[in-house]
Design a protein that fits this description.
By secondary structure, this protein is an alpha+beta fold. The protein has 19 helices and 14 strands. It is 47% helix and 16% strand. The structure holds 2-oxoadipic acid and nickel (II) ion. It is an enzyme of class 1 (oxidoreductase).
Amino acid sequence: MISQWQLRAAFAARLSEMYGREVPAYTTLVDVSREVNEGVLRARGADAERLGSIGRVTSERHGAIRVGTPGELRQVARIFGALGMRPVGFYDLREAAASAVPVVSTAFRPVDGEELARNPFRVFTSLLTPADPRFFDAGLRSRLETFLAGRELFPPELLALADRAEAERELPDAEAERFLQLAVGAFELSTEPIDKAWYETLERVSAVAADIGGVRSTHINHLTPRVLDIDELYRRMTERGIEMIDTIQGPPAWKGPDVLLRQTSFRALAEPRSLRLADGSVTRGALRVRFGEVEARGIALTREGRALYDRLLGLVDRRASRQPDADRGELARAVWEENLPGTERELAARGLGYFTYHVVPGRARDGSRPPGSVGELVEQGWVRAEPLVYEDFLPRSAAGIFQSNLSGEGSRDNEREGAAYDTEWLSGAMGREVLDPFDLYEQQRNESLAAVARQLGTDTP
Ligand code: OOG
Ligand code: NI
């Protein structure tokens, strides 16, 4: 029998194998990430594993896919459900991007601590928004919906195996093998010829709309390894002649604790594709749809911490617009140093970051009574705080990542009212509840505090 987490780990590994075969620059990214991680581990020892074991970090990946209809999203949810992954978070990329990205998104990932430690594979999953009149007029919307209704992304056999794996939380060896083959196959780039005129019609709205609705299949568009020092990785990739986008997105490099998520990417490479012309003949062309990304993960922020982060971003934006020649990274670093606590301990004390709490063995022996608050318990050495790693995404960075394969600007008619899409809508469309990431971190913290109280024989602090 192959359990759910083993299926998830095997799927991530096979997807990585497939992507490496098809996108060689990805293999370079993985190799350089491994070198950087080994270096950090040598230099920092156990401290390097504070936000995840080196085993977890080395195999850790996130992927991204894009689908066209709620029906397709429901099917994707069944496949990821088989792997123990649930939809977490709502990202509205229609608003976050400077240029047009007509999608709303969620991320499928494991949700409990043990499952995350085993293998945290996650997939950022975007759904096209044909009902948003800022992007699609009535005629184009209806052609698009007809096109999407006529395609099948996932074979029925794959979906049946997925349902079984989700219900039974495991599959027998032979079925597991079949499931993995079909699942990886469903995310490969198709060789079927693309209708050139139709693709280009959608491309005028947005390259992302064309990537989703211009073809009869879906594909993984990037797969992202995790690195422990993204500034060092960026230097080494550049040295190897791979042209990265010009920034690392997310928080700046600074001397305080790493929080949330820092990401960077290289632009999609032109790949040969068959294009069908209006007269039915097939010609060779090239499309840029698959790219490479790498990320460094930090401590998950609480709602208060996140609100502070968003305020600081705004502050950096304002300073950057007043000083257009200044280096944005430097400006951000200065803003960070003025406003964010420089140590993990303070981050915890000010309620800005998520931690779990664990009883320090032996402390109770002197016969004194443990204090009542978490802060005092930590201060007096009864419990130690372990940071929770951020398992999710950032809308502004995601919008930046989407640009990695946008050739044109696309178009958005800002005179029109946008269609309303939100978490509830997405949950309804998928038939599964889209979970709130803050609730999940909070739950992990609360469970650890309940365990502390049980062990110390006190009330939950
Ligand atoms: C997804 C972009 C978002 C990330 O890491 O923020 C993303 C896409 O390009 O489909 O993967
Ligand atoms: Ni990504």
